[in-house]
Specification:
By secondary structure, this protein is mainly alpha-helical. The chain contains five helices and no strands. This is L-asparagine permease.
């Protein structure tokens, strides 16, 4: 019985050593600035949620309908974008790739730069 206990203790010690060896270089403490940013984010999020409550209450059940419609639109837009990217898989920016097949060659580069920079 003592052998089983020793084997279990050795196994536990080896496991602990392995887990600790993979944490080298990581800090296990947060700085003052990090804690402040978390607190500010929590306060802002709570304030926005409580501030929007009256407006959400005025919207009533229409809010659920609008949320559903926007979700459906987003689903179909993302699905269409996925089909466009999978149509011709290449290791390039999707806007440049799609532009090369649907836009004349001189317009491909400006179209890609416009969509990548957002201007």
């Amino acid at each position: 019985m003592n052998t089983k206990h020793e084997n279990a203790a050795e196994h536990h010690a080896a496991k602990r050593h392995w887990l600790n060896s993979h944490e080298a270089g990581y800090h296990k403490a947060m700085g003052n600035r990090q804690v402040q940013m978390i607190a500010i984010g929590g306060a802002i999020g709570t304030g926005l949620f409580l501030g929007a409550g009256a407006r959400l209450q005025m919207a009533g059940p229409a809010l659920a309908l609008v949320y559903l419609v926007c979700g459906i639109f987003s689903f179909f837009i993302l699905r269409a974008l996925g089909e466009l990217v999978l149509h011709r898989p290449r290791a390039a920016a999707s806007s440049l790739m799609q532009g090369s097949s649907s836009v004349k060659k001189p317009l491909t580069w400006p179209a890609g730069c416009t969509s990548l920079t957002g201007r």
